[in-house]
Amino acid sequence: MKYSPKKITSGNNPLLKKIRSLKERQARQKTGLFLIEGVTLILEALEKGLKLEHLLVTEEYFADGLEAKLMEAIEGDEYLAAELATVPLSIFKELVTTQTPSPALAAAMMPIYTVEQISKLAPDTVLLCENLQDPGNLGTIIRSALAFGAGALILSHGSVDAYNTKVVRSAMGALFALPILSIDLVAAAQVLKDAGYIFLAFSPEAPLSVSEYHFEEDKVVIMVGNEAAGLSLEAEDLADISLSIPQTNKIESLNVAVATSIALYERSQVKYLRQ
User: Fold this and answer.
1) What average pLDDT does the structure give for the chain?
2) In the prediction, which pLDDT does 266 show?
């Protein structure tokens, strides 16, 4: 190695205080950093080109030897290299959120996107979530968005943070491959409508079923709402078309992550049939 890692033995170390703070949204927004737990997810982040600022590993894991990709991350260009530190397992367990943690934890730079960039990339499908609250739901939605070909995910202000540690874990690496941004709903709609996007609102009360809709538009924004309240009136007013997902009357409604996955799947099938 080009240098020895920083050896941390106290839980009061300033770096550890910084790492702990990144569990809070305010600190993530202030620093532009977020936490990635586990060797597998860290390697996926590196594969997708994310930059690590800090890499913490247990003393035992470091002694056994790091994976080659992690070595590259800490031995690269001095302006890109991550700062490596070792910590005792007892302290490391206090830093992570899982009960049986993988022996590595990274603080990575958040990718930054604007709605203007998304507009220029011109993906044929953009997903817009309004006031989504549950981290597990968002993680599932991110995975489905990537699986079914959405080119970007927009979260309205008031939604759960995409870089919440629970979201990062439940998205299982898909987070690193999908452009995601948080922005005012109306501001995003204005830019995308000017770029020719058609807005499709999904609501249980909509008279037109998604199974009857042909998705003929080249560029669409699929809008889904809050887990309990659905889309706001403001969001519904932005819709060019409202769609529902047919279901039996044995349940009141679908989970938002399930409904979003169905909507994305229906859109993807039309796209693939045209190819």
Assistant:
1) 92
2) 94
For 69-122, how does the pLDDT look when each residue is reduced to its tens digit (9 = 90+)? 788 777 765 545 688 999 999 999 999 998 888 999 999 999 999 999 999 999
- Torsion angle, alpha carbons of 129, 168, 148, 231, to 10: -10
Confidence of residue 271 (pLDDT cuts 50, 70, 90): low
φ, ψ of residue 273 to 5 degrees: the values are -65, -30
Residue 121's contacts (CB-CB under 8 Å, 6 or more residues apart) are 151, 152, 179
Cβ-Cβ contacts under 8 Å for 27 (sequence gap 6 or more): 21
Domains of the chain: 6-109 (3.30.1330.30), 115-274 (3.40.1280.10)
- Amino acid making up residue 115: V
Question: Residue 97 and residue 66: Cα distance in Å, rounded?
Answer: 22
pLDDT (mean) for 226-244: 96
